[in-house]
């Protein structure tokens, strides 16, 4: 019995997911799939940006390491251009690099900040790159110009950013959440205090742009609508908890087709949820280390997640012999990500 317990406790892949070949040598800070094809990019604390090609044949997945690029310091964030040929990455060297992935050209620096760059997003509708930093600014970049076209002061360091044009939501330190209408990007649309009591880890804009999800270090998610008339629909819920143990919610991803969403946490679990019916669709078995980041591919048929030590328990609890970094690919079943059919006359008052 004890041997079984030890085996299960050390299992980094209890979901029998496909493991990505040639993973990073240190923790993964971001994952993002190309909007056009099954190319997956990961940024890491080992100062590398890596790309894999994922091929899918029925229920079997195969990965091939394609190429990689180096920053001078740990890399914290990544985003694809909408054409699927170019990747942006930012990090502790205070710059954003543009990487023409498929052409073989060298990366170039396209954005600079005064402190580490924590968030980056490509806004295709505006043909602009936006970057957020611990220097308490957002900067918008036209790639043909060396200087930002606009610098937006933030109330504090940028922790998370999500864009679903025309909505952009930025979460900063001190629990500030700022919504922008990108049709007027130089003015804050709305600033609120997070509905959660503790530090924000992640935000995700609703696919219909009416609001956002926010996740925090306290194992809780807030569902927030921007319209004053919709405030009665706001709620928070607990997740990524185990008895008295509370774990950070590190990642929030909406399914691109069904508009349900996934949470991933420092407890090593990922779960699928339907906010409209306020229900959990599926709880997955826990991995033996934290999940710091995750991403759906463009059609929602693949969910990528990283499993590694997240340093939340400090250097003294880091065990290099057991702290392997892995990236896994899960094929979501319909029952995991499709909303449950509504019963009765829901929505009619």
Quick take:
This protein is mostly beta strands and 349 residues long. It has helices at 2-9, 334-337, and strands spanning 18-19, 28-33, 39-44, 48-57, 60-70, 75-80, 86-91, 95-100, 108-112, 117-123, 128-133, 137-141, 150-153, 158-164, 167-172, 176-181, 188-193, 200-205, 211-216, 220-225, 235-238, 241-242, 245-246, 249-254, 261-265, 270-274, 279-283, 294-296, 303-307, 326-330.
Architecture overview:
By secondary structure, this protein is mainly beta. It has a domain of 137 residues: Methylamine Dehydrogenase, Chain H (7 Propeller). The strands form eight sheets. Strands 1-30-29-28 form a four-stranded antiparallel β-sheet, with no helix packed on it. A four-stranded antiparallel β-sheet has the order 2-3-4-5, with no helix packed on it. A hairpin with a 4-residue loop joins β26 and β27. The longest helix has 8 residues. The N terminus and C terminus are likely disordered.
């Amino acid at each position: 019995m004890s041997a079984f317990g030890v085996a299960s406790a050390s299992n980094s892949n209890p979901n029998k997911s496909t493991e990505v070949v040639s993973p990073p040598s240190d923790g993964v800070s971001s994952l993002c799939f190309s909007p056009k094809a099954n190319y997956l990019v990961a940024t890491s604390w080992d100062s590398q940006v890596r790309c894999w090609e994922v091929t899918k044949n029925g229920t079997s997945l195969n990965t091939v390491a394609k190429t990689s690029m180096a920053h001078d310091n740990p890399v914290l964030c990544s985003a694809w251009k909408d054409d699927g040929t170019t990747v942006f990455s930012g990090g502790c060297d205070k710059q954003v690099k543009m990487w023409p992935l498929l052409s073989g050209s060298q990366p170039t620096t396209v954005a600079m900040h005064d402190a580490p760059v924590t968030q980056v997003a490509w806004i295709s509708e505006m043909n602009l790159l936006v970057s957020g930093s611990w220097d308490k600014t957002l900067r918008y970049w036209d790639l043909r110009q060396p200087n930002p076209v606009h610098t937006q002061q933030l109330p504090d360091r940028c922790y998370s950013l999500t864009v679903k044009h025309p909505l952009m939501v930025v979460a900063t330190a001190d629990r500030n959440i700022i919504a922008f209408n990108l049709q007027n990007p130089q003015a804050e649309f709305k600033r609120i205090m997070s509905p959660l009591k503790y530090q924000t880890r992640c935000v995700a804009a609703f696919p219909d742009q009416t609001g956002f999800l926010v996740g925090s270090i306290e194992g809780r998610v807030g569902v927030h609508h921007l319209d004053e008339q919709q405030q009665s629909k706001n709620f928070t819920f607990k997740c990524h908890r185990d008895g008295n143990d509370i774990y950070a919610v590190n990642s929030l991803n909406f399914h691109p087709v069904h508009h349900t969403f996934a949470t991933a946490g420092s407890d090593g679990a990922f779960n699928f949820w339907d906010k409209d019916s306020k229900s959990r669709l599926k709880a997955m078995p826990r991995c033996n280390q934290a999940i710091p980041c995750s991403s759906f591919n463009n059609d929602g048929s693949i969910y990528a997640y990283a499993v590694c030590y997240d340093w939340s328990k400090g250097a003294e609890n880091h065990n290099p012999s057991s702290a392997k970094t892995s990236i896994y690919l899960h094929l979501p079943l319909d029952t995991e990500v499709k909303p449950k059919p509504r019963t009765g006359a829901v929505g009619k008052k």
